[in-house]
Design brief:
Blueprint (H helix, E strand, L loop, with lengths): L1 H5 L3 H13 L26 E7 L5 E7 L5 H14 L4 H5 L5 H6 L5 H24 L1
Antiparallel strand pairs: 1-2
Helix pairs in contact: 2-3, 3-6
């Protein structure tokens, strides 16, 4: 996905990310229902994002996201990206994803607040993987 994004100009990238946000699926009710618990809330995220990591039989994780702000297009796109790229991957690889990957995905023109919130989504997801590694 990163190589694909690297080949896009700014307009194409924005269109691609907008299309990804349309693919966003809310966390299934079997995982969580509103009101979502505060310990799942992503700190610093203006879009009020929440993260869950579900243990899979093969030792990997399935990630689920909720974005409460209806204008949270970037957070929804990030949720799709994180689910598609982290779910089902080896937990040690998930744990090592750097939060600054956000700038490679969205570009350097991100506002500071939005960039911090999206990086916090990555950090929350990788934290879940690191937590699993510690308990194994």
């Amino acid at each position: 996905m990163l190589e694909e994004l690297d080949g896009l100009d700014r307009v194409e990238r924005a269109q691609y990310l907008l299309e990804l946000s349309d693919d966003f699926s809310e966390v299934p009710e079997a995982i969580a229902t509103r009101p979502f618990p505060e310990n799942r809330r992503v700190p610093k995220c203006e879009s009020e994002a929440f993260v869950w990591a579900q243990d899979q039989d093969d030792g990997t994780l399935k990630f689920h996201y909720a974005v409460e702000n209806p204008l949270g297009i970037s957070a929804r796109a990030m949720g799709v990206i994180l689910d598609e790229t982290l779910s089902g991957q080896p937990v040690d690889q998930v744990a090592s994803v750097p939060p600054d990957i956000v700038h490679r995905i969205f570009g350097r023109q991100l506002s500071m607040g939005k960039g911090e919130g999206l990086a916090a989504m990555v950090e929350f997801s990788t934290y879940e993987a690191r937590r699993r590694l510690q308990t194994r």
